[in-house]
Design a protein that fits this description.
It contains 8 helices and 13 strands. The chain is an alpha/beta fold and 289 residues long. It is globular, with a radius of gyration of 18 Å. It binds alpha-D-ribofuranose. Alpha-D-ribofuranose binds next to β2, α1 and β7.
């Protein structure tokens, strides 16, 4: 049986406004277009995992207004048995996208913040030894998930996005894989410059595979004596950069599990990010509203 990635992550309704420039303090801005999309870093990662041929179970919470997100994930072959309905509204994001595809995002956690430890335990009880746990930082109980998964001998990957001050208090040294973008990597390592950042993080987390995304400058994988660099893949048009990091994470993990070859995982993840930014919406599938 294929290993399953248990993805403990957010599901959001993304409200996307295309604007000529980001709204400034005190300004009222009329958007050119408005659309809603499925989103949330967790959901975007789950979609990327199955698009890359991985098996995924999405664990989290939505509100009644988000049941269509559950239907969408289910229709893609993602196990939604542990995606439950809360009395809180579904998490959501207000996203401005400029003509060059840049974004500015405000999120509200809503139901994403209501998953209980007993729901986490129930999902982990279904695992077999070869399964993986993936977590991102739009949910609560991150330390509990890491510790409970490690007690069961599972491999754990963490995407530190969106980073906050709580991240440094998580048991990061227990992680098998840690995904960071450049800003997050600078914050965690308290230094600057890719080489210096990697040295500092590798000293702090010697048993963790580090994957750092650098936007247009590509990505880096580092573990023990191996450092691999991957250039970003060119795309004809940059429409919307939202979710590019999530597509990268889900695709990388699915391919690493499938092939065991970090270089292959980096290449496929770079392709997935390029695909994601060439379309509207945060999932690699985009255009579903
Ligand atoms: O990473 C992009 C995601 O961040 C969006 O889908 C939005 O919902 C926020 O969670």
């Amino acid at each position: 049986m294929r290993p399953v990635i248990l993805n403990f992550g957010s599901c959001n309704i993304d409200h996307v406004y295309t604007v000529d420039a980001f709204v400034r303090p005190g300004e009222t801005l009329s958007s050119r277009t408005y659309q809603t999309f499925p989103g949330g870093k967790g959901l975007n990662q789950s979609v990327a995992i199955v698009q890359a041929g991985g098996a995924c179970s999405h664990i989290g919470r939505i509100g009644r207004d988000g049941e269509w997100l559950k239907g969408m994930l289910h229709s893609l072959g993602i196990n939604t048995d542990f995606l439950t309905v809360s009395t809180e509204p579904t998490g959501h994001a207000i996203i401005q996208v400029t003509p060059d595809g840049e974004n500015a995002i405000i999120t509200h956690g809503g139901a994403n913040h209501t998953t209980t430890q007993s729901e986490i335990d129930s999902a982990l009880e279904t695992t077999k030894d070869t399964d993986f746990v993936l977590i991102q930082n739009e949910i609560k109980n991150v330390s509990y998930i890491i510790e409970s998964a490690k007690k069961r001998g599972l491999q754990v990957a963490f995407n530190a996005a969106p980073i906050n001050n709580g991240v440094e208090g998580y048991p990061l040294d227990a992680l098998d894989l840690l995904f960071l973008n450049e800003t997050e990597a600078e914050q965690l390592s308290r230094t600057r410059g890719t080489a210096e950042i990697i040295r500092a993080l590798a000293r702090k987390l010697p048993e963790t595979k580090l994957i750092i995304t650098l936007g247009g400058d590509g990505s880096i994988y580092h573990y023990k004596d191996e450092t691999l660099k991957q250039i970003a893949i060119d795309t004809d048009q940059i429409v919307d950069t939202t979710g590019a990091g999530d597509a990268f994470v889900g695709t990388f993990l699915a391919h690493l599990i499938k092939s065991g070859i970090p270089r292959k995982a980096l290449v496929e993840a770079a392709k997935a990010s390029a695909e994601c930014i060439s379309r509207k919406g945060a999932t690699i599938l985009s255009e579903i509203t």
